[in-house]
Amino acid sequence: MYKIVFLFIFISTTVFAEPIYHEKKYPDGQGPFPTVLILHTSGGFRANEIESWSSFFLKEGYAIYAPNFFERHGITPKTRKLTFTKFRKPIEKDLTEIVEIMKKDPKVDSKNIFAVGFSNGGFWATFMAGSKQVNASSSHYGVWQFGPSQTADLKGYPAKYIKKDTRPLLILHPKKDQVQKYGRVKSYISKVAKKSLKVEVHYYEKGGHAWHNKKYKKGVGYNREIYEDAMARTITFFNKYKR
Fold this sequence. Notes:
Layout: E1 22-25, E2 33-39, H1 47-59, E3 63-67, H2 88-104, E4 108-118, H3 120-130, E5 136-140, E6 169-174, H4 182-195, E7 199-204, H5 224-240
Parallel strand pairs: 2-3, 2-4, 4-5, 5-6, 6-7
Antiparallel strand pairs: 1-3
């Protein structure tokens, strides 16, 4: 007599029933409103920064959605590189899910969704344009390279997201950036600008990384004039691509 042994293998996967944490704000009125997806820095989801960035768009009649793409994955400022390696694919899915939620929001004009990202968020704004999920994106002092520690997981991103038929992308970058240094990122930015005529680039002679943050006032960073100009350029760019 033979004994038959059945082997059951259970594969455990994490399924999230809820989308990642996000906040939303609307201008006065009934809507639907054109809406901006605001993507935070490697400093994480900071309420004061979200409020400051949001204020520019709300005044111009845009609603905003601001997701925290660090929290679910346990990413911190110290482990920020995991954003682009271990959690790159999951975050792509997280942000895609947020866009689908935006489109179902009756106060959001689903034909006019945009994305703006700062530093780490600039990487994701590039993804949103390259994946054609938004009308247009804007990257402020965005992440374009990872220095000597670059690995196979990091190599080529976010430039790889951009194809000839990308959605419009505005790249705003300071030449005195001490984090994403001009000398290192210029070739990557030039590469995506050559790939598509829908990529626009503007370099600032003044200001530096995190030009919005007073914490960097003493160094090459904070510059209120540059900050306001960058936001104004972004809003003008988005207005250009409204439907």
